Each structure stands twice: as C-alpha cells, then as structure tokens.
Amino acid sequence: MTEELYQSDEHQESSEQVSGKDSASPNTSVSIFMHAGFWVRFWAYLVDLIVVGSLSRLVLSPLFALFGMNVYEAGVFSPVQWADTVVYFLYFVLMTKYFNQTLGKMVFGIKVVSSKEGALSWGQVLFRELVVRYIYKAFFFLNLLYLWVAFHSEKKGIHDLVGDTEVILQREGIIKTI
C-alpha cells in the first residue's frame, strides 16, 4: 500500500522542520496518509445511509405527518421521496465541503481531499457528491463503478478521478528530527 506524507492544516510545519534543519524543535508533528480502499469506504457509506435514513425518519416523517401528508405514500415523485432525496444530497455535499468527511467517514478515519493543493472547492464537491452520485443513483447498474476503487492503483473511484479528489486514511504521528 502506498503511503504519502502530507502536512495537514492543523500542523503547518516548515520544510526545514520536517527535514531536520530546525534545531529548536526535536519533534515535528506530521500527518501520514494512505489511500482508503474499497471496503473501508463501503462500510463508511453504509454508516452514512443509516445516518441519512435516521435523519429522514426523525425529522421529515413527523414534519409531513404534522401537515397531514401521508408519510408512507409510495412513488418516486411523492413529496416524501423528494424531501428524502434533498436530505441525502445535502448531507453528502455539506459534510464533504465543510468537514472533508461525512459521519461514516469520521467513524472509519477517512476523509476526502483535493488531488491538487489546497481545500476542496465547491466545484469539486458538487461534481463529486451531487452530479456523479446522482448519475449513479439514476442508473442503478452504474453503482458497479464504485468497484473501480478496488482495482485502481491509488484507490480512486471514477468520481475521484473526474472530481480530482482522493479519499485517504489519516494517521497522526511524530517524526523525531536529529
């Protein structure tokens, strides 16, 4: 498994400290990242589905019942289904943009980062979490494309490649400088 060394926003150390040229600090805090594979991402997604389903049932169901709407109305175009869909996409878009991870990803210690330097842009997040996720949901068989993560050398899915993002496992550590 390939490991990459990044410096996280919380530990902005200079290159001199990481390389050991700064004699004032014997220890340097850095973050070591490995690409997250298929299974850890799969389990994180299942946790996210439980979270989104719970949010919908705890918030939307009572709200619709309060207004006398049938919560159990079947159909793709029912108001409840539309509201569930909005909650689903808002959850993934907002959590990814503001925290770089959803609750499921937090549980498993993984997060989404830009393949470029810097924070995730709105364009990256919207494309990754809204456009591609919508296409995958609209055409159910396309969900099989998530399996691409298992076979890609950097553990990137199609949505990562097109959105210019990576999903990484984060491990904090200390490097002693000599």
UniProtKB/TrEMBL annotation:
Keywords: Cell membrane, Membrane, Transmembrane, Transmembrane helix. Residues 15-24 have a biased composition (Polar residues). Residues 1-24 are annotated as: Disordered. It holds the Pfam family RDD. It comes from the Bacteria. Signal peptide: none annotated. It is a multi-pass membrane protein. It is found in: Cell membrane. InterPro entries: Pra-immunoreactive, RDD. Residues 36-163 form the RDD domain. One of its GO terms (cellular component) is plasma membrane. The chain crosses the membrane at residues 42-68, 80-99, 134-151. Its main location: membrane. PANTHER family: LMO1584 PROTEIN, PROLINE-RICH ANTIGEN HOMOLOG-RELATED. This is RDD domain-containing protein. It comes from Bacillus coahuilensis p1.1.43. The lineage of its organism: Bacteria, Bacillati, Bacillota, Bacilli, Bacillales.
